[in-house]
Structure formats: C-alpha cells, structure tokens
Design brief:
By secondary structure, this protein is α+β, with helices and mostly antiparallel strands. The protein contains eight helices and 16 strands. The two termini are 22 Å apart.
Length: 281
C-alpha cells in the first residue's frame, strides 16, 4: 500500500484530488503586458527557483457513484509532463476505472495523456465531455488552414483525441454536466475554455482550467496574458472578472497550472489579488 499522499479537498459528497502530470517549460517572453526581467523577478520573489517552469495538474474526482478525471495532462508530448498514469496508479486508480473525463479545453498539455503513443485511447471506459465550441474549433478545417506551424500540431493532437473517443463523446453549452457539477464558460484562452463548479452540501469548489499559467504573476497582474491564449484581451477580461468573483465569494479554486499544492483561495488586499494555497481539508 502506497504511503504517498496527494493534495485533496472534500466538497460535500465529492473528494477532489490534484494529480501532477509534471511540468512544461514556457519562456517568460511569451507573456504580454510585462517584460521578462520583471516577470522573472516576480517569480523569484514568490520562491519559484525555476521561473519558466509551468506545473501541470489534473484532477481526480470521486463521489456520487463516479470516478472522473478533469483533463488528461500532456502525456509526454513535447517532453511535457507524462506522469499522470503512474500517479493515478499510486492514488489507487487504474485507467479502466475512470468513467468520465471532463475537458477544460483541448490544448496538448490537457489532452496529450488521453491517448497512448500507439494511438489507442488511454481511458477505454470513459465518456469524454467538452464544450461544443471547443470541439467545433478544433474540427474546423478553416481554423486549421490559417493556424501557424506550431498550432497545426495542436490541431492534429486534439483531433486524434476527439476521433479516438468519438463513440463516447458528449458536448454541452453551459449548465449542469453531471449532478452537482456545473460548466462555467470562461472564454479567451480558447473559445470553449470551461471551468467546472462543484457544489454539494453547501460547499463549493471551482476548477478553473487555464485562467493562469504563471499564478504568482497573473493573479497579481491579471492584465498579463500569454501567447497560448487564442484571444489575449478576452482572456484577461475573463481572468479579472473571475478573480473578482472568487475573491468576493471566497470560492475554493483548483487550476491546471496552480502548482503542486493544487488548491487555493484568492484574497484581495489594497486593490491587489493574492494567492493563498489551501491545506488539505
């Protein structure tokens, strides 16, 4: 029996566990509205010894008769991540035991782990659930034709995933996706970028996807966007609006790039947002 513990929060009937897929590296030059030396200073002031490292979280959710996964990590694509399967095993869950996968969006560091290098799907019994706009974007040949060379590879990865799970693929627009789980459209990073709000027994938690990539920069400076955003100004507006809400309402948050602690709250002090990691419930 493993003695490894994972960051975990209980939200009513749900147990939500942060599962690390590892890291990717993203140049601080990818950030806009801030210069790289200032971004590096903010990272180091926050104790980040590798300023360009971006942590990748997935979230394992157990409860209400289900075992589901939110996002699938990078799966080793581009030498990013790749730890999800071994970490799930340490958490006592095998791929065949996952019955549902909720996607925040279909960038490679979120879907790469959903297929094997052979092309076979990695979670054979899982229904794949995504926003209809996300599916439409990646399947649109016109979007593919005008994409950069780097982005074309992202299309091929997303299409491989959607095709692999095509016989158990479900889309939504907004609202309840499962009992106790509500989809929250958070457009900007991608057109169909979605958060998932868990509400059970008067408790709540929001998995907010890629609202931030560098949390110690973008929470204090929500105007700072990243080159991965499809619409940087819309992403910044979504981020500011959401930070207002979660800080005002005290909502516990989880995010794919929050860091290995996995869970946090946002506090607003003297007009600035701050990140406070949450210890295990």
């Amino acid at each position: 029996m493993s003695t490894i513990t994972f960051p975990t929060q209980r939200v009513g009937d749900f147990t939500i566990t942060a599962i690390s897929d590892g890291y990717l590296s993203a140049s601080l030059d990818f950030l806009s509205n801030i210069d790289a030396p200032e971004a590096s200073r903010m990272q180091r002031d926050a104790g980040q010894t590798q300023p360009a490292a971006v942590h990748i979280n997935c979230y394992l959710v157990r409860g209400a008769g289900r075992t589901l996964l939110i996002d699938g990590g990078a799966g080793g694509i581009k030498q990013w991540g790749g730890r999800l399967r071994s970490q799930l095993s340490l958490a006592g869950v095998e791929p065949s035991g996952i019955d549902t996968i909720l996607l925040t969006h279909a960038h490679p560091d979120h879907v790469g782990g959903l297929v094997e290098p052979t092309g076979q799907i990695a979670f054979p019994n899982a229904e794949l659930v995504t926003h209809e706009r996300e599916l439409r974007f990646w399947r649109d040949d016109a979007n593919l034709a005008r994409a950069s060379e780097r982005a074309r590879g992202n299309f091929l990865i997303a299409r491989q995933v959607f095709d692999g799970y095509s016989d158990k693929l479900r889309t939504f627009n907004e609202g309840d996706v499962l009992p106790g789980i509500t989809a929250m459209p958070l457009p900007g990073h991608t057109d169909g970028h979605t958060g998932y709000l868990f509400e059970s027994r008067d408790q709540s938690l929001l998995v907010w996807g890629d609202i931030v990539h560098f949390p110690h920069i973008q929470i204090e400076r929500p105007d700072v966007s990243i080159a991965f955003d499809q619409d940087s100004s819309r992403a910044a507006a979504t981020r500011s609006r959401l930070l207002d809400r979660v800080s005002a309402e005290g909502i516990l948050i989880a995010g794919m790039h929050l860091g290995e602690a996995g869970f946090a709250r946002i506090r607003q002090t003297r007009g600035k947002y701050g990140l406070l990691y949450e210890t295990e419930a």
